[in-house]
Q: What sequence folds into this?
């Protein structure tokens, strides 16, 4: 089989997946809401008509076509579904922590639609999450963009099949701790991290060359070309070099952020988003100029040394410098109130309502490469919508209903308390889990690498 | 490694004739163990030749390890040893489509000094497709007889190991002096389990690595082909992994993917769709949701022959709060659905078989009975144990039913096989007869009891053996009308001294006595079930203590104690 | 509101060169004592209702006077028209000052070795110069309980004001002995003990707690009888709880544990405060009946059970309050205690109501900790812990304009704000010259 055939096979595999995923699409008319369109201002007393999962019309005095349910949202706020650009919900495995580069692993392989956290995210208005590989590797696995179609048990149904490919990178303490200090292999320092990146990309160039020359040679008659070894890892790096995959890089310190910007520029990579980016504010002009921006926490800091010199004004500084900025959760708890996290940018830096809301809608959509489909209330876009009682940026706001593709998946008034899709036949029902603070899963599945897991899991964002 | 490479190339079907002729060399046997004939006639038994067939009175004649006749008017050769089958039921011997019986995990290879966790050798990383279960198997393992005792005559043994543990093999649960091999390299055992602390460490890494191995096996064979036809080429590297994977790529053998949950099932099927190998899903525990997906994939299915632990549902209390009751009901429903899953596979028309990997032999019959009680037809249950497994293993020509010319693998039981009090008296494997003790049922007047019933009321002194040691107490039984009541004393598990519990569900069926009682240990209620045979004033049976297992239980009706009472 | 915020920032930025100048003069930005008249505000007293067009006079660290027409009398006048005055918020449970960077063990000072160390004093380990303290107080949180954690009796917690350079200056008059009530629940996702093991560990811990308690009781009564016992600092400290000299702060969360804890304290005759109480809503009536006050939080938390409704942690405080429990709210945070007002807002929105939520971060903790004569409301004679805001301090849009602690006017800056000032418009920017 030639290399080209591999691509073909992969493509066919993809289209099979497409065909098998038959997701529900809904039709509804939401009336008399204060519509926060994000991209086209705020529309008072307006209606949004959704047909077959697509926003058909935004306006006033719209009528419901036959069979379309009307929802009266008088006095309520309607905004696009919230998008979390950094999450680990719905994944059975987070880290393949065993090598500095594991670009070949795919989070789509281990999507778990049963995790009740997905429903809880919906209850906080989140309709899309970026299910990421963990931060144990310099180049981690390929991420999955999920649509929170709660209730489906087929992982393909909750994967946003029309989202572009993204991949996880990680700099700083986590990869150097796992590999350098945990396994005694490079990288142990930020120097090593850069070297791993440059080595990987250069190897990928050679790999691509080998295949290119084989492919052109083998088409000739009577050739004696031997096929090179297949290496999915280098193939993915090669795809990154060709801007087919968006990098989402876990990063904290300004120096390492700047390092990756330079590496990317040297290799001609333009699709680059920084994650966490606590010191992004120090290199905000560079992030704005050369990348697709940063996805940050609203106020997390001091949980590890590389985030000690943080500021909650980070998002505001990045925004004012022109960087695309989003607010993310990286956490099963925080994802439940991203609207509130976005609101914190109003205290820390005086963001306007539009700026703050963009950070959890159109901006993360841009960073995930899906802003043509979601992230704002515009005709023709997918009908991922949330209705709030009270302005979503008020501390007292309460999400009421959440829709994905026009289908209602959360309704505060109607939903049962127990939302688990599945119960184990051997379960003792009174098992209690006491919440012990934020529990990021960035470093999940790396337990075995450390003797004192306890210290690790408090602090591994 | 050389040896394993050899294995990888071998694909042989050993006929039983070869076996017996090789054994025939031994003329004298000072040990006295050699059997005097290999010809047996089981006469006038109720024979079930295949799933769905009703039992007919017939004689089964076996010789040379083969069934040479089934019928009512067979002429029996002089050398045939006769077994009176009048009260016996004969079934085809069960086939365990995937088993860990007799398998010992090979030692982990030593890590070299220059071990790099990100790039370990295949062998260390659990990628050992060249290994064979045959090398890990011992017929002398006591578990072999445990499995045979419940009716199994053939098993596909699965190698123990990592993501690609090695090749399975099909063996007879037969005589110790035979290799018992039916088929080597019957499939490649695969799982999603990663290697601890090295690449690939998790399911997501395993899936990526699987794809990589698959694609490079293909390329490796292209290179090898080219190397043999064109001169002047660089020598391609031959690795045992790719060599051993060839049979999978060529479709000669299936991948036996261990997939217990529905998500794992989906993952294995998605790999199969991508790469196109033959797939057998094995070890299924939780699969109701994906029955359609399985059916569409065309993969073969091996269900784990086990039912979920009922500890949780038994612990549910009636006086729970409303909130807890609702949650309890969900768990109960999940349990009911779990035990009815096999019947759903049947309804979907998927010809599944069973695997006993990770299953205790002693629990198998109860699991089957529970599945049948929850909707699985006896026909399908038997098919899963015989014809379906034979067909999935590709041995239908020689095994799976009682027909002339097939291997003499039979179960001889005292009642229809799935009946609750049915007992297995003989197992025939490869023409060899294995005898098992049966507890006499409705034995009448042996002890001079004119009415043909046994008397159990009174005080029994009993002892029981458990891993914790031997213990005992007094079992006191009274008759009230036609019912029995009583108490039992035992060593208090939560301290010293004796505790007493009432006994319940006391049933005397012929000479079979069964009863149960609750023991409270550490605040947990454990149901203890005892059943066995009463023979005059002695009682022999087993005590079943929830998940802890079954232990011997013996008692004597003590006249002194009666007098004292 | 948005505009106000911008003005505030502009004001800060304008101040920047001035600050620099001030530093040249050898003066640093620091808390300033004095006599301040906060004029014409809307005063939300918490205990005495809302007073419009009212002024508050701060002098000598105390609230001297509250009224409509207070004479300036040499006081520095701060025009508060259009603004709101609230009491400083009290966080009923934190580790503030006891940890600087969580992952750097050398900076973590809240968990000592040993299961029985009630004599460990959080107060003396507090770092008054922790970067997190000024980060916290600009949110309007002026007082926090800072508590040790770890074993069965990990130490003694202390209430501190977020102003001062020594523990003595910061101390706000309350100490309590922390007890982690033996838990029958699972502690986080990585607790993989079997149900059996958890049960066993729980039984063992209860037994140990009982034994220690009995010992401490004997120790206390022997000493009060005049006995001269061997030095035994742990017993000496726990004895203070058995005699009622110090309250017991019992950390308890699972419903069954809460019931067990209620039973456990019933015959102890000691002052008890429950903390955590994540499943309090399940047994709210029982807690109310027992008359035990509660410091609950974090409010923004995950439900304790997968089968629980998503909003149970938000609604927990309100449900307990409705059942008649005296409820205070805590963040259980270290560097992000600044989120206390937002936690209170969530509790308010999910059933507690604003008024009760305000009490839960002011007068209720003050009463629970026995310092309501000095803290928790805007009343004459109380310590001048005050905040001036341009709106509802629970809302993120609101600016906290002034913070007073012990009558000191606190500088409204911190490292996070200084970084903002430096980097909002970095120089050099993208290009150097």
A:
């Amino acid at each position: 089989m030639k290399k080209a055939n591999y691509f073909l096979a992969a493509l066919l595999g993809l289209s099979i997946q497409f065909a098998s995923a038959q997701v529900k699409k809904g039709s509804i008319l939401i009336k008399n809401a204060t519509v926060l369109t994000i991209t086209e201002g705020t529309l008072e007393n307006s209606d949004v008509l959704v047909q077959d999962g697509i926003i058909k019309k935004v306006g006033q005095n719209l009528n419901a076509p036959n069979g379309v349910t009307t929802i009266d949202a008088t006095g309520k706020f309607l905004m696009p579904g919230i998008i979390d650009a950094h999450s680990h919900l719905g994944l059975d495995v987070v880290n393949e922590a065993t090598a500095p580069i594991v670009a070949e692993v795919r989070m789509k392989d281990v999507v778990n639609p049963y995790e009740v956290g997905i429903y809880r995210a919906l209850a906080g208005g989140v309709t899309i999450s970026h299910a990421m590989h963990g931060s144990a590797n310099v180049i981690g696995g390929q991420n999955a963009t999920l649509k929170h179609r709660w209730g489906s048990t087929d992982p393909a149904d909750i994967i946003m099949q029309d989202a572009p490919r993204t991949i996880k990178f990680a700099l700083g303490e986590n990869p150097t701790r796992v590999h350098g200090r945990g396994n005694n292999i490079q990288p142990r320092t930020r120097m090593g991290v850069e070297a791993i990146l440059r080595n990987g990309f250069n190897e990928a160039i050679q790999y691509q060359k080998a295949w290119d020359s084989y492919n052109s040679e083998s088409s000739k008659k009577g050739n004696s070309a031997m096929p090179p070894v297949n290496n999915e890892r280098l193939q993915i790096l090669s795809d990154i070099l060709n801007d087919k995959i968006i990098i989402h890089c876990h990063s904290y310190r300004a120096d390492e952020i700047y390092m990756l910007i330079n590496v990317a520029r040297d290799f001609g990579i333009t699709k680059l988003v920084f994650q966490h980016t606590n010191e992004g504010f120090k290199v905000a002009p560079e992030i704005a100029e050369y990348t697709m921006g940063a996805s940050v926490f609203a106020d997390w800091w001091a949980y590890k040394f590389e985030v000690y010199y943080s500021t909650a004004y980070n998002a505001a500084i990045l925004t004012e410098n022109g960087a695309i900025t989003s607010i993310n959760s990286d956490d099963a708890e925080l994802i439940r109130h991203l609207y509130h996290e976005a609101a914190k940018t109003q205290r820390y830096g005086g963001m306007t309502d539009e700026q703050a809301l963009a950070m959890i809608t159109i901006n993360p959509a841009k960073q995930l490469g899906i802003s043509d489909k979601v992230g704002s209330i515009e005709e023709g876009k997918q009908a991922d919508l949330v209705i709030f009682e009270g302005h979503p940026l008020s501390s007292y706001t309460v999400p009421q209903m959440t829709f994905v593709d026009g289908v209602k998946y959360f309704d505060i008034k109607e939903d049962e308390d127990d939302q688990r899709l599945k119960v184990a036949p051997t379960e003792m029902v009174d098992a209690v889990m006491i919440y012990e603070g934020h529990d990021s899963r960035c470093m999940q599945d790396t337990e075995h690498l450390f003797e004192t897991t306890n210290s690790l899991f408090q602090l591994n964002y | 490694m050389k040896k394993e490479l050899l294995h990888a190339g071998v694909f042989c079907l050993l006929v039983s004739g070869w076996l017996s002729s090789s054994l025939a060399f031994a003329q004298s046997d000072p040990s006295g163990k050699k059997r005097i004939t290999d010809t047996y006639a089981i006469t006038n038994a109720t024979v079930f030749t295949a799933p769905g067939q009703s039992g007919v009175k017939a004689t089964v004649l076996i010789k040379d390890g083969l069934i040479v006749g089934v019928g009512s008017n067979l002429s029996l050769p002089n050398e045939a040893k006769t077994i009176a089958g009048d009260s016996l039921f004969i079934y085809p011997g069960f086939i365990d489509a995937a088993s860990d019986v007799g398998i010992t995990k090979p030692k982990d290879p030593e890590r070299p000094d220059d071990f790099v966790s990100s790039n370990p050798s295949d062998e260390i990383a659990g990628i050992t497709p060249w290994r064979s279960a045959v090398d890990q198997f011992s017929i002398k393992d006591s578990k072999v007889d445990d499995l045979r005792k419940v009716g199994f005559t053939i098993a596909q043994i699965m190698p123990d190991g990592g993501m690609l543990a090695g090749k399975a093999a099909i063996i007879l649960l037969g005589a110790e002096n035979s290799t018992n091999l039916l088929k080597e390299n019957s499939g490649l055992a695969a799982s999603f389990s990663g290697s601890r602390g090295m690449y690939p460490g998790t399911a997501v890494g395993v899936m990526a690595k699987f794809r990589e191995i698959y694609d490079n096996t293909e390329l490796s064979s292209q290179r090898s082909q080219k190397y043999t036809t064109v001169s002047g080429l660089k020598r391609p590297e031959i690795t045992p992994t790719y060599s051993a994977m060839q049979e999978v790529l060529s479709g000669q053998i299936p991948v036996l993917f261990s997939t217990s949950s529905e998500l794992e099932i989906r993952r294995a099927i998605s790999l199969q769709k991508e790469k196109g190998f033959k797939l057998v899903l094995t070890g299924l525990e939780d699969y109701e949701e994906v029955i359609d997906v399985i059916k569409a994939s065309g993969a073969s299915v091996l269900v784990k022959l086990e039912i979920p632990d009922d500890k949780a549902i038994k612990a549910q209390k009636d006086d729970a709060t409303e909130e807890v009751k609702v949650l309890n009901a969900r768990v109960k429903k999940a349990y009911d659905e779990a035990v009815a899953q096999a019947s759903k596979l049947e309804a979907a028309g998927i010809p599944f078989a069973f695997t006993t990997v990770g299953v205790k032999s002693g629990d198998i019959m109860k699991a089957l009975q529970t599945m049948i009680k929850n909707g699985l037809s006896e026909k399908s249950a038997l098919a899963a144990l015989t014809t379906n497994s034979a067909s999935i293993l590709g041995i239908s020509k020689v095994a799976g039913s009682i027909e002339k010319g097939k291997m003499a693998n039979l179960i001889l039981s005292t009642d229809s096989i799935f009946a609750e009090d049915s007992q297995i008296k003989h197992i025939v494997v490869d023409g060899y007869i294995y005898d098992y003790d049966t507890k006499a049922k409705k034995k009448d007047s042996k002890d001079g009891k004119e009415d043909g019933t046994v008397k159990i009321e009174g005080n029994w002194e009993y002892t029981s053996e458990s891993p914790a040691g031997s213990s005992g107490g007094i079992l006191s039984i009274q008759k009230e009308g036609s019912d029995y009541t009583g108490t039992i004393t035992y060593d208090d598990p939560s301290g010293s001294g004796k505790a007493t519990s009432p006994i319940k569900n006391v049933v005397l069926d012929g000479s079979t006595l069964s009863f149960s009682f609750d023991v409270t240990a550490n605040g947990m209620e454990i149901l203890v079930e005892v059943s066995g045979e009463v023979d005059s004033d002695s009682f022999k049976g087993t005590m079943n203590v929830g998940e802890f297992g079954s232990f011997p239980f013996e008692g004597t009706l003590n006249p002194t104690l009666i007098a004292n009472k | 509101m948005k505009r106000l915020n911008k003005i505030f920032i502009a004001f800060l930025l304008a101040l920047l060169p001035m600050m620099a100048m001030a530093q040249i003069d050898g003066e640093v930005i620091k808390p300033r004592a004095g006599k301040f008249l906060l004029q014409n505000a809307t005063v939300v007293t918490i205990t005495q209702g809302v007073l419009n067009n009212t002024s508050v006079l701060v002098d000598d660290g105390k609230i001297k006077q509250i009224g409509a027409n207070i004479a300036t009398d040499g006081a520095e006048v701060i025009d508060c028209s259009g603004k709101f005055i609230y009491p400083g918020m009290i966080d009923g449970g934190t580790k503030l000052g006891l940890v600087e960077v969580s992952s750097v063990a050398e900076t973590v000072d809240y968990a000592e070795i040993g299961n029985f160390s009630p004599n460990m004093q959080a107060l003396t380990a507090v770092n008054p110069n922790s970067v997190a303290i000024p980060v916290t107080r600009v949110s309007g949180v002026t007082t926090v309980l800072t508590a040790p954690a770890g074993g069965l009796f990990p130490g003694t917690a202390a209430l501190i004001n977020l102003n001062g350079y020594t523990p003595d200056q910061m101390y706000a008059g309350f100490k309590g002995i922390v007890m982690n009530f033996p838990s029958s629940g699972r502690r986080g996702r990585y607790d993989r003990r079997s149900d059996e093991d958890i049960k066993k560990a729980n039984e063992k811990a209860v037994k140990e707690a009982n034994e220690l308690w009995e010992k401490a009781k004997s120790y206390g009564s022997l000493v009060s009888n005049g006995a001269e016992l061997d030095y035994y600092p742990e017993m000496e400290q726990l004895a203070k709880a058995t005699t009622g000299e110090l309250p017991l702060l019992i950390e308890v969360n699972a419903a069954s544990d809460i019931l067990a804890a209620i039973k456990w304290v019933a015959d102890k005759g000691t002052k008890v405060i429950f903390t955590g109480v994540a499943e309090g809503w399940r047994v709210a009536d029982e807690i109310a009946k027992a008359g035990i006050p509660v410091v609950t939080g974090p409010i923004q938390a995950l439900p304790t059970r997968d089968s629980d409704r998503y909003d149970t942690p938000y609604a927990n405080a309100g449900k307990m309050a409705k059942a008649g429990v005296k409820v205070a709210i805590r963040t259980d945070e270290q560097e992000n205690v600044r989120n206390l007002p937002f936690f209170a807002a969530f509790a308010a929105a999910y059933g507690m109501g604003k008024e009760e939520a305000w009490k839960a971060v002011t007068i209720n903790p003050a009463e629970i900790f026995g310092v309501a004569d000095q803290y928790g409301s805007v009343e004459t004679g109380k310590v001048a812990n005050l905040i001036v805001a341009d709106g509802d301090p629970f809302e993120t849009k609101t600016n906290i304009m002034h913070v007073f602690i012990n009558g000191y006017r606190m500088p409204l800056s911190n490292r996070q704000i200084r970084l903002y000032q430096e980097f909002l418009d970095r120089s050099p920017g993208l290009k150097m010259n």
